C-alpha cells in the first residue's frame, strides 16, 4: 500500500473517530468512553501483532518513543472526550485539528526539517480556516 492510500484511510478513520466520540459521550461519561476506546485500540493492536507473527521490533529507543506516543495519545484522547462532552463536536474537532502544527514545530526544532515559504502559507491558510470554522 502506498502512503497516499494509507493517508486517506487514516483521514477517513479519524473522521469516524471524531464523530463517534460525540456519540459515545452522549451516552456515557468521558472517562468511560476513553476506556472503551482503548479496548478498541487494543483490538487493532492484537490483530496487527497477529499479522506480524507476534514478533514486533525490539529496539529500545523505538519502543520508548512508541510508548511516549501512546501516552500522549491517551492523554489527548481523554481530554478530547472531555471537550466533546462539554462542547459542540464541530468546534472541538476543528480546534483540535491544529495538532499538526505541534508536530511541525517539533520537527523543525528537533529534527531540523525545513518548512518552505509555500508550506508556511499553507499553515497560515489552515489556521485561518480553523479560526473561521470554530467561531
Structure description:
The protein has helices at residues 3-25, 30-51, 60-86, 89-96, 99-110, 117-133. The chain is globular. The protein folds into 2 domains: 3-88, no CATH class; 97-135, no CATH class. The protein contains 6 helices and no strands. By secondary structure, the protein is mostly helical.
3D shape: globular
User: How is the main sheet built?
Assistant: none
Radius of gyration: 17 Å
Indicate the multimeric state. single chain
**Kindly state the mean pLDDT as a whole number?**
94
Strand content: under 5%
Structural class: mainly alpha
Count the helices. How many?
6
Secondary structure: number of strands: 0
Distance between the termini: 38 Å
Low-confidence stretches: none
Helix share, percent: over 70%
Domain module tally: 2
Write the layout of secondary structure elements.
Elements: H1 3-25, H2 30-51, H3 60-86, H4 89-96, H5 99-110, H6 117-133
Helix pairs in contact: 2-3, 3-4
Short synopsis of the structure:
The chain is an all-alpha fold. The chain is built from six helices and no strands.
Task: Name some characteristics of this structure.
135 residues, mainly alpha, 2 domains, 81% helix
Amino acid at each position: 500500500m502506498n502512503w497516499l492510500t494509507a493517508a486517506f484511510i487514516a483521514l477517513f478513520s479519524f473522521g469516524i473517530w471524531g464523530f463517534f466520540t460525540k456519540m459515545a459521550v452522549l451516552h456515557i461519561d468521558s472517562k468511560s468512553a476513553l476506556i472503551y476506546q482503548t479496548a478498541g485500540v487494543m483490538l487493532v493492536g492484537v490483530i496487527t501483532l497477529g499479522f506480524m507473527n507476534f514478533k514486533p521490533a525490539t529496539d529500545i529507543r523505538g519502543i520508548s518513543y512508541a510508548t511516549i506516543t501512546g501516552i500522549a495519545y491517551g492523554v489527548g484522547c481523554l481530554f478530547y472526550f472531555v471537550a466533546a462532552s462539554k462542547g459542540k463536536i464541530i468546534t472541538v474537532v476543528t480546534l483540535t485539528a491544529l495538532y499538526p502544527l505541534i508536530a511541525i514545530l517539533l520537527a523543525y526544532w528537533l529534527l531540523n526539517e525545513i518548512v518552505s515559504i509555500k508550506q508556511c502559507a499553507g499553515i497560515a491558510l489552515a489556521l485561518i480556516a480553523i479560526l473561521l470554522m470554530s467561531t
